[in-house]
Amino acid sequence: MVAVGIIGASGFTGAELLRLAASHPDFEVVMATGDSQAGTRAADLYPGLSAAYPDLVFEPFDADRARGLDLVFLGLPHEASMAMAPELVGHVGCVVDLSAAYRLKDASHYPTYYGFDHDQPGLLADAVYGLPELHRSELKGAQLVATPGCYVTTATLALRPLVEAGLIETTGVIVDAASGVTGAGRKADLAFSFTTVDENMIAYGLLSHRHTPEMEQEIGAQLLFTPHLVPMNRGILATCYAKPAAGVDVSTESLAALLRERWADEPFMVVTDGSPSTKATLGSNVVQVTARYDDRTNTIVAIGALDNLAKGASGGAVQAANVALGLDESAGLSTVGVAP
Amino acid sequence: MVAVGIIGASGFTGAELLRLAASHPDFEVVMATGDSQAGTRAADLYPGLSAAYPDLVFEPFDADRARGLDLVFLGLPHEASMAMAPELVGHVGCVVDLSAAYRLKDASHYPTYYGFDHDQPGLLADAVYGLPELHRSELKGAQLVATPGCYVTTATLALRPLVEAGLIETTGVIVDAASGVTGAGRKADLAFSFTTVDENMIAYGLLSHRHTPEMEQEIGAQLLFTPHLVPMNRGILATCYAKPAAGVDVSTESLAALLRERWADEPFMVVTDGSPSTKATLGSNVVQVTARYDDRTNTIVAIGALDNLAKGASGGAVQAANVALGLDESAGLSTVGVAP
Amino acid sequence: MVAVGIIGASGFTGAELLRLAASHPDFEVVMATGDSQAGTRAADLYPGLSAAYPDLVFEPFDADRARGLDLVFLGLPHEASMAMAPELVGHVGCVVDLSAAYRLKDASHYPTYYGFDHDQPGLLADAVYGLPELHRSELKGAQLVATPGCYVTTATLALRPLVEAGLIETTGVIVDAASGVTGAGRKADLAFSFTTVDENMIAYGLLSHRHTPEMEQEIGAQLLFTPHLVPMNRGILATCYAKPAAGVDVSTESLAALLRERWADEPFMVVTDGSPSTKATLGSNVVQVTARYDDRTNTIVAIGALDNLAKGASGGAVQAANVALGLDESAGLSTVGVAP
Amino acid sequence: MVAVGIIGASGFTGAELLRLAASHPDFEVVMATGDSQAGTRAADLYPGLSAAYPDLVFEPFDADRARGLDLVFLGLPHEASMAMAPELVGHVGCVVDLSAAYRLKDASHYPTYYGFDHDQPGLLADAVYGLPELHRSELKGAQLVATPGCYVTTATLALRPLVEAGLIETTGVIVDAASGVTGAGRKADLAFSFTTVDENMIAYGLLSHRHTPEMEQEIGAQLLFTPHLVPMNRGILATCYAKPAAGVDVSTESLAALLRERWADEPFMVVTDGSPSTKATLGSNVVQVTARYDDRTNTIVAIGALDNLAKGASGGAVQAANVALGLDESAGLSTVGVAP
């Protein structure tokens, strides 16, 4: 068994890790810390954990206890994660960080988008971006994995094959996306209260959302990203617009063929001729993608959908951890969501 | 009092007209027809109408009874509306058609987008597009008013001022929008069942939605329109992307100033520096709009929000009718929605 | 015009009062205070108020400015309301208190259910319970009106006629009810976050909810009340169970006849042979009720539905104020909700 | 591997069986029939099945192919199930019927509650009621299992221990419950459209719901059952009221102790001192129960919560099948739901 620690386990991504770990054949959660919730029973915070974790109590972080574990997930604020990683890397089998602390290869984005300077350039360079569909070989044996942002995974898996194939202009790309509320994390905030969110749709982070440079890094194109909040618990849908590259012939059929070929061997990728929906991915690790070419306006539309807490965060983290540790990549991860 | 008939009153737009008519100081509904629901009590179909219309029974259409009315709303399928309008125009004070039958000045779009040929070119030419914010003077005394499509109203009121001012390129515009489920009308269809829609977001009508040529007509630009279905009852949010016209200087501030000036005297337009939300318009006739300029990608983002059944359909129809008949334009229309 | 002040206007009941006042032909809001929100624009807190109240800013309470107003609504915490009423009663035309401070005629319930001793026994005795359907004649000219609790209005209007007619045992009554989330007020609390409430139903306040003694007072029976939270923004449904009184013959028909007769002249009461639904009342001041008799188990089921913020709080308060001030009882109040 | 057939696989319970089978270590689905959907790809009807069942096509029923299977689930209308069971029992390892055809030991309830006469008295007598928590020993090796109704499982697991212990009066019990919309099955019906259900709560089946005699059979008490529809996809919450039996001393503590003892060894039962919520069970096979005693009104309140499609239907069916076939009772069944 893989001895697993979850640092910052009391947030939504932590709870989702506990959910996935409960059915992972190789994982044994031996430590779950939650500083602000230290002393709280996990089942009191998340009643859905009552049957699987009746006795689990969040504990304060203790570096001595963490060292020597096979796998440690970090579910901490970005800056806290940046600071904690060096304490753990090299002392545990693998560190999988769910924050953005080690995602951006260009450290200059941190002050701009996250408000702090990055003081771990060496670790930042060594960290592997935890998207197996793009970085599988680097992930094998990795000591520090940076789990992608939820919006980034969605848009990247829809658009990256088009960039790789040289099909689209790499400027002027539009990513218009919407997320369920869990994307905001566990917060007592009126902006995420039922009364605010229910029967509501609103754009936020206009022009400046933090996932922008991360998307540009992984997709390989300059883009404008507009996120929206919609009244769902989970789920991201990204609708992306790009112009065909000069001199390139595209069609809806050729785009579909490209996506199918690129993702043919991926256990969690579904290329559809229909319209991806968040509900088709609810609770599973699946990503659905499609693409269309509109010759009337000479525009490509590529769409991706996933569950932001599953593949978009904790499920993606487990998948990357599985690869890093040499386990079955699909272990503990479902391909069927809870729908209807 | 204005003697009002509603033909096709049993659908969602009909029910919304009944709701609005109940608090309109000048309207008296004297006829409400619903062919498939003839004989059904309105309150049995819509229990919320029980107190205001305890005795109203939908009746079959009778042209003789319709003639002579001051105002007739048509809530019929497109082709049925096209056929009925000539029977009424000239025989009633004003006909307000909520279908698309008389919206598109270029009749050649009808076979392409609606599947039938338009056989009333004269009436089509005479019909006034029922958006008072753009066509107020033509609406005064109009005999046939074509109420705009819900998506069209949303995008047009956000984008049209930019086109009028020559600020944006009139090709390559993207309108990415989402609607609540009432937009689909009253249908026993699994696609609109709670189980399908709840916790779901999905794009539909990819590349080919019927509101495309109508938006192009009213906005004055070539555009690609992608509608989505989100788990709300009412509400449309349209997020629109355009490039500044060559040689034009724009900024978020100048865009805001333009929108404020253009809509300054409109009773239902709210220009906000915040982010328009559908909930801010729920149940009211209000449209919220904003715009931003992103110099990093040289892109303008314009956003509009409204209630698709209110301003987006029946509320807009009442507003246009008020103008056509010379009544107070705001009569019967609320400026405060039902939120929280 | 009636000069209206709203003290504690920044909460949900305050926002609903502002919504209703905007279409009230006789009300002019001249003061809206919100201590914690003093200095905040109403439209920034509630974007739906932007069009109707573009310039309204919540101000701190000022007794001098309040005195002399025709009508003052109090939307304050219970104990604060208890303390403020004596400062205003006699100095303004009418005080309508939306808290529970002046609802319970037996002051001994206050320490038990609200955690404070009532120190205004005189005002408590003079206050009129603001349910026009039961206390209309007392309300005329009242100086202090105590607006009923939302659950209480729902259950009382379904059950009170049965008690008045001597039809049911006045012990052992069960009131099983559920509410939308606005009933909890405007609170940044994880318990009312979208993620907690969406796709969830839960009972709360088991055995001990504060509305219990108030229901017993107005219904005239000893009862057990169980409230639930359901994923809706607005709406209360109360399903009530009682045994027929000894020796009384009841039937579903006789119960329906009794309800219809009792509520025949009420502008907002709908007695239905169908099943009341919260949606039929959404945004309106309507209450729907029904009753059934099950001879198999010798049990009466009575059901009521309303909008908790409208008739259940601010709409009921406006209705009571209309009666108190001698205005048209229905002024400013809708009988058609926003549905579909 | 257990060769599994699902007859009537295209409905919601069929889709849920497919979901559960995909992660069941011993199940291999070799046949999935759906008469009205024969020829349809499962993934086209339920896009969430795309990754796990990319090639599964619903086929017409073929008795020859069904015979010899280890396990057959029937997801058919009640009367169709009654007729098909004799064709299969004895020819397959075990038949698990999700309809009500073999649940009611008193056949006279069928004409009253289901509108047909039961013509298989022998099979009805032999069928085992598929609730392992009450009938585990009978289930071992059973050839025909009748999966309980979703409401029945909820109320029974909350109330049955109290009856067994002689704690409550076995008349006058009230079961007031609410369900998410999937309980109604896959139907193109306006009553279950998003627009009808969203922001709505309504009672239905007043006095006469079909689960009444089934609850009375399994709980062992005469009761009145009122179901409600609430705007959730999945989930049932049952709030039950009973009087203590004459001469019996009860307290909230003794009730909790009783429930804990009774369900101590059950893998899916959670007895809580908190308030059971549907969300705590979403997507898992868990049932949460609690009980309280109110001495003021001398009433016991017992509450149960579960996922109606999981433990309330297909999950319960898999659990019962596991017992019948001698597999690990928990195989393929989750104890952690998808929440947040």
UniProtKB/TrEMBL annotation, chains A, B, C, D:
It catalyses: N-acetyl-L-glutamate 5-semialdehyde + phosphate + NADP(+) = N-acetyl-L-glutamyl 5-phosphate + NADPH + H(+). It holds the Pfam family Semialdhyde_dh. GO terms for cellular component: cytoplasm. GO terms for biological process: L-arginine biosynthetic process. GO terms for molecular function: N-acetyl-gamma-glutamyl-phosphate reductase activity; NAD binding; NADP+ binding. It is an enzyme of class 1 (oxidoreductase). Keywords: Amino-acid biosynthesis, Arginine biosynthesis, Cytoplasm, NADP, Oxidoreductase. SUPFAM superfamilies: Glyceraldehyde-3-phosphate dehydrogenase-like, C-terminal domain, NAD(P)-binding Rossmann-fold domains. Its main location: cytoplasm. PANTHER family: N-ACETYL-GAMMA-GLUTAMYL-PHOSPHATE REDUCTASE, CHLOROPLASTIC-RELATED (PTHR32338:SF10), N-ACETYL-GAMMA-GLUTAMYL-PHOSPHATE REDUCTASE, CHLOROPLASTIC-RELATED-RELATED (PTHR32338). Catalyzes the NADPH-dependent reduction of N-acetyl-5-glutamyl phosphate to yield N-acetyl-L-glutamate 5-semialdehyde. HAMAP family: ArgC_type1 (MF_00150). This is N-acetyl-gamma-glutamyl-phosphate reductase. The gene is argC.
